[in-house]
Write a structure and sequence with these properties.
It is a single chain. The chain is an alpha/beta fold. It folds into two domains: 5-102, Rossmann fold, CATH 3.40.50.10860; 105-241, NAD(P)-binding Rossmann-like Domain (Rossmann fold), CATH 3.40.50.720. The chain is 38% helix and 21% strand. It has helices at residues 19-30, 46-55, 68-74, 80-85, 104-115, 132-143, 156-165, 224-231, 241-256, 262-272, and strands spanning 5-11, 34-40, 60-63, 77-78, 90-94, 97-101, 124-128, 148-153, 172-176, 186-189, 212-215, 236-238. It has a six-stranded mixed β-sheet, sandwiched between helices. The longest helix is centred in the C-terminal third of the chain and has 16 residues, at 241-256. The N and C termini lie far apart (39 Å). The structure holds 2'-monophosphoadenosine-5'-diphosphate. 2'-monophosphoadenosine-5'-diphosphate binds at residues 129-134, 153-155, 158, 191-193, 198, 200. 2'-monophosphoadenosine-5'-diphosphate is lined by residues 129-134, 153-155, 158, 191-193, 198, 200.
């Protein structure tokens, strides 16, 4: 029997990750032979776990919290989008060494534009949050050609610094949550507030019936931000399950050279989540 190419997810915690299911499903749908496991790698243990994985012949990795910066430092070469994101969520083992990529932003854009049918060109967009998730989303959002992109963060100085880093990439500015006055066509929540069932303290006019509200987080059922947006009559809401599926597909394509069909896997995952 042929030995399957080995892939894995490194993170902490990873017990509830849907990535092993997704990559197994992608392998079935594309006929690719591979194995994929989630490995709980405690903070500080990334380099050791990576060395063991490579010694065992591993072909590629996904990396999630808290190791995306350690992965960024460990690779031999970075894709342009990983350099811009300042973080690595995908490693491919290549003949030239370890290639670090970041598929999160591309996954977000694919979900917004392809799955949800939003045309970002010319939109006024609000990006809430200024941490790693916001940084990863910013480059691809600006590439889509919005009329204006405002970053709003609880600590306004972080939003201003992030906007300054991307000043050459499009019409971006930063400020505090309280200054995020609408109308916006799209609000993307890139904070970790939903993980604590909290909602960023945005002004009431940040969302109106013309606003689509997207939460990069997901859980069972609508997130706190989605419920808040729906209460304000938002045009539509979505959680980050589609982004999860699309970033996984981008990683799979990097490793295997074939892009898996995502619509079916996304529908199945939503059914499993009871959405
Ligand atoms: P990640 O990698 O998920 O982006 P992070 O870098 O720790 O995580 O960033 C978390 C983000 O969520 C930050 O923008 C944080 O705001 P501050 O920088 O002001 O701390 C934001 N955040 C977390 N909880 C929040 C809350 N309850 N309300 C508003 N913003 C919140």
């Amino acid at each position: 029997m042929a030995i399957l190419d080995r892939y894995a997810l490194f993170g902490h915690p990873v017990a509830h990750s849907r990535s092993p299911w997704l990559h197994a499903r992608f392998a079935e749908l594309t006929g690719e032979g591979l194995s994929y496991e989630a490995r709980d790698v405690p903070p500080g243990d990334f380099d050791q776990a990576l060395a063991e994985f490579l010694h065992g012949g591993g072909k590629g990795l996904n990396i999630t919290v808290p190791h995306k910066l350690a992965a960024y430092a460990a690779v031999d070469e970075l894709t342009e989008r990983a350099r811009r994101a300042g973080a690595v969520n995908t490693i491919a083992v290549t003949p030239g060494g370890l290639l670090g990529d970041n598929t999160d932003g591309a996954g977000l854009l694919r979900d917004l534009e392809h799955n949800l049918g939003l045309a970002l060109h010319g939109m006024r967009i609000l990006l809430v949050g200024a941490g790693g998730a916001a940084r990863g989303a910013l480059g691809p959002l600006l590439d889509a050609g919005p009329a204006e992109l405002l970053i709003a963060n609880r600590h306004a100085d972080k939003a201003r610094a992030l906007a300054a880093d991307f000043a050459g990439a499009g019409p971006v500015s930063g400020g505090g949550l309280e200054a995020a006055h609408g109308p916006f066509a799209l609000v993307v929540n890139a904070t970790s507030a939903s993980l604590h069932d909290e909602v960023p303290a945005l002004p009431g006019d940040a969302v109106d019936p013309g606003t689509f509200c997207y939460d990069m987080a997901y859980g069972s059922g609508p997130t706190a931000f989605m419920r808040w947006a729906a209460d304000r009559g938002a045009a539509g809401t979505a959680d980050g399950i589609g982004m999860l599926v699309e970033q996984a597909a981008e990683s799979f394509a990097l490793w295997r050279g074939v892009r898996p069909p995502t619509a079916q896997a996304l529908a199945e995952l939503k059914r499993q989540a009871g959405a």
